[in-house]
From TrEMBL:
Cross-referenced SUPFAM superfamilies: C-terminal effector domain of the bipartite response regulators
Lineage: Bacteria, Bacillati, Actinomycetota, Coriobacteriia, Eggerthellales
Taxonomic source organism: Adlercreutzia wanghongyangiae
InterPro entries to which the protein is assigned, alphabetical: Sig_transdc_resp-reg_C-effctor, Tscrpt_reg_LuxR_C, WH-like_DNA-bd_sf
PROSITE patterns: HTH_LUXR_2
Protein name, per record: Helix-turn-helix transcriptional regulator
Length: 481
């Protein structure tokens, strides 16, 4: 196996540290003392991560090729490892623990961004397979740490943290082609505006889903889950997480295309709702299974967000790295705020009111997923195929080009006697969109879009999309005066 194939697989260590950091303090030699530290110190790592990610979002539009690379990975990787070691072995007092959380928060956020930069440079299909395979391997790492003796968990955590840093330090960064969609942004105002425009591509319903699901999970933590067998719970969670990731890998391999956002969120919706539906059930097996489903949904939520944020950037022809970092920052900021809000709800309202709050959050969560499933985009995209954004202030040239292109596509569709729906699919194909992206734009099934595409190729006498685009380019060249 080549070095380029091994590197993406080791992304599992990054996903592993992402999950294990939430419980790493329990592996510390000073775990009993840490439990008595002020609550604020427990959130320093997440707060520092959010602030670091926000700073990266501001800077990445202009300086991305300077922010990521071997030097950055080595420096911030050392910060992550030093903070982890201090937390595990030296957190004898609250000051040392606070320093460890700052180091971990900043270092981990930057290493995560370095991995995101590597993923953003991949094609969509390879990137999604990489995330799915790495997630399955991370589930195995979770199971390994959970099954290990208590004394071995701290060394295992450090080994996984090293695994998330070392591949980036040794990676051939000179071969990574960073997209440069903001070469024109030479002043501060323009690249800040660019970042704001990119983040506006995030669907509002996705942000609502993040908020409702995060707060729902935090509220559920304060409920007393049904009595469950710890050993059985561990096995159930391992099987659910591992089986789910294996199914995702098989799905990507079988369908041979990049799934749309609405397809991605279906498994998460099913797992969460099914787990909540049987949560009140009695009986050892059902009670354990329900808790396992609810807790496993959190793992799927993280992994699906990795895929979905990149996919939104791809389907919108936007800056995938910027959109991912911005979306991940928003999600972590929501998670940071969700815990104190959930704590206030738990301490200030009755159990019945808390149950009603959880029901409202479930409905908001399901409603946001439904909006994502039914999401329809405008027939005229604000982004060109090459990733450059149309600027409303650019004058009449952009509007003239849009009108000219629309009329050109309409003329070709009429000449080839395309149906109305075929003409719509043709306009998207001509701009380079994939079938899954067209499915999402027009809210059609895969088989329907695939059938229209076959009919279009037959009427144009071509074998596929690339030949179709080449033919259209030839027609456009001949039609110019």
């Amino acid at each position: 196996m080549s070095r380029e194939n091994v590197l993406p697989l080791l992304f599992c260590c990054q996903i592993g540290t992402l999950g294990l950091l939430r419980q790493a303090s329990s592996y510390s030699l000073w775990s009993a003392a840490i439990e008595g530290y002020p609550t604020a110190t427990l959130w320093l790592a997440r707060l520092c991560s959010v602030l670091t990610l926000a700073a990266l979002v501001v800077l990445v539009g202009r300086f991305r090729d300077r922010l990521f690379g071997r030097g950055a990975a080595a420096g911030f990787g050392a910060m992550l490892l030093a903070g982890s070691a201090l937390m595990l072995y030296g957190a004898a007092n609250v000051a040392a623990y606070a320093v460890s959380q700052v180091l971990v928060g900043v270092g981990h956020a930057w290493i995560l961004a370095c991995w995101a930069a590597r993923l953003a440079a991949m094609d969509a299909a390879r990137r999604n397979r990489t995330i799915a395979v790495a997630a399955l391997a991370a589930v195995l790492l979770f199971a390994l740490v959970g099954a290990a003796p208590a004394a071995a968990r701290a060394p295992l955590f450090l080994a996984i943290a090293v695994g998330s840093v070392a591949p980036l330090v040794g990676a051939p960064w000179d071969k990574v082609a960073f997209p440069s969609p903001v070469e024109h942004a030479v002043d501060r105002a323009s690249w800040l505006r660019y970042g704001g425009e990119t983040l506006r591509l995030l669907p509002t319903e996705l942000v609502v889903l993040m908020a409702s699901y995060s707060l729902l999970f935090r509220v559920l933590v304060f409920f007393e889950f049904p009595a469950a067998d710890p050993a059985l719970l561990t096995w159930c969670e391992a099987l659910l997480r591992g089986g789910g990731m294996a199914l995702l890998i098989a799905y990507l391999a079988r369908r041979k295309f990049v799934p749309s956002v609405r397809q991605i969120f279906m498994p998460l919706l099913f797992l969460t709702v099914a787990g909540l539906a049987i949560l009140p059930a009695s009986g050892r097996l059902l009670a354990t299974l329900s808790v396992a489903m609810v807790e496993s949904s959190w793992t799927f939520f993280y992994v699906i967000m990795w895929i979905a944020l990149f996919e939104i950037g791809r389907s919108a022809r936007g800056d995938e790295l910027m959109l991912f970092l911005g979306g991940w920052t928003i999600m972590n900021a929501i998670l940071l705020a969700a815990a104190p809000v959930a704590w206030l709800l738990e301490t200030q309202v009755s159990q019945g009111a808390l149950s009603m709050t959880a029901l409202v959050l479930v409905l908001a969560y399901m409603f946001s997923v439904a909006l994502l499933l039914l999401r329809r985009r405008s027939a005229t995209s604000a982004l060109h195929v090459d990733g450059s954004r149309e600027d409303a202030s650019s004058g009449d040239g952009a509007a003239d080009w849009q009108e000219e292109r629309t009329q050109f596509y309409q003329r070709l569709a009429e000449e080839k006697r395309l149906t109305r729906r075929e003409a719509e699919v043709f306009a998207w194909l001509a701009q380079g969109y994939s079938l899954p992206a067209i499915e999402e734009q027009l809210v059609l099934s895969h088989s329907t879009v695939k059938g229209h595409a076959r009919s279009i190729y037959r009427k144009f006498g071509v074998a596929g999309k690339q030949e179709l685009i080449a033919m259209i380019d030839g027609e456009r060249g001949r039609s110019k005066p």
